[in-house]
Amino acid sequence: MISTENKPLVSVIIPCYNVSEFVEKAIHSILKQSYSKLEIWIIDDASTDDTLAKIKGFNDQRIKVVAFKENTQKVGAVNIILNQISGDYICFQDADDWSDAKRIELQLEQFMADGDLGICFTNYRYIGRRIAEHGRIALDNQELRDEFLGFMQKNRNDIDNTVCSTMMISRAALQSTGGYHPYFAGRVAEDIHWIFRILKRFKGITVDKVLYHYTVREGSFTQLQRTGSNAKFAYSWQLLSKLIYKDIHDRIDLLEPFYEDELKIIELIACEEALVENIRELNNLKNSFESSYSYRIGKMILKPFQALKFIIIIFPKFFINYFINNGKNYI
Question: What is this structure's pTM?
């Protein structure tokens, strides 16, 4: 248990955009935390539904509501709030997810036990219309560094992804990294890039208890990445992998203004790789479908209809055209 004397303040940031269906449960899960010394920053990033109205329906002195008139794609809004918070530690709550009541207490205990700790995650479970199971996740500092500093570079088939929104960070980690890089607005990789920068400088750990409930839903940034509705979404992972690799192995931060031309080249390469990968996946899916038992049965069933189509449609047309073109020979 954390000592009641000089309890640290924890700032909780809840970014919201058109999450009317989920936001109340997310906020309730933070208000009901066993650790109560919180300031709760709820950000409405120019929602077009009644998200803001539901946020304003809460009455708790710990809550601070900030409403933006223009959408910032999360990155801009959160960075503004990060400059205003007072917490010794900062944690995040996605507005379509919810947290177990002991989440913040158990994460904070990790920081109290290790002064070098900069970031702490928790285990999680998926919820939503289509439930997916996950296996073992990165738990210690080395496994987390392998995941984020070696992003997409190492074979990690035995370890599933960390959910970034479970993170709690120290103020020292915030001051050292400064929050999200504005380059990643709308690229669905802003969390991973920030965590990568934190783990370069600080230790990380994961509380191996299911303290976070992650909603799998249509319309989320992660889901939209696979719809093709936004070109930047389509190659985000390939691009981020190259940026991290360049940073780690060549000690070059391509997001510095000096490297603008090289960044454009890397973006193009990442886009091409994503295109090739998607085409390969489509071809594999096509081949798999065409070799399936149901597809072969379907083709057998359709054969008589294809012959009938020739007899009823194609053959009469051929006969009529032939008669029109050669009928004079019969007159």
Answer: 0.80
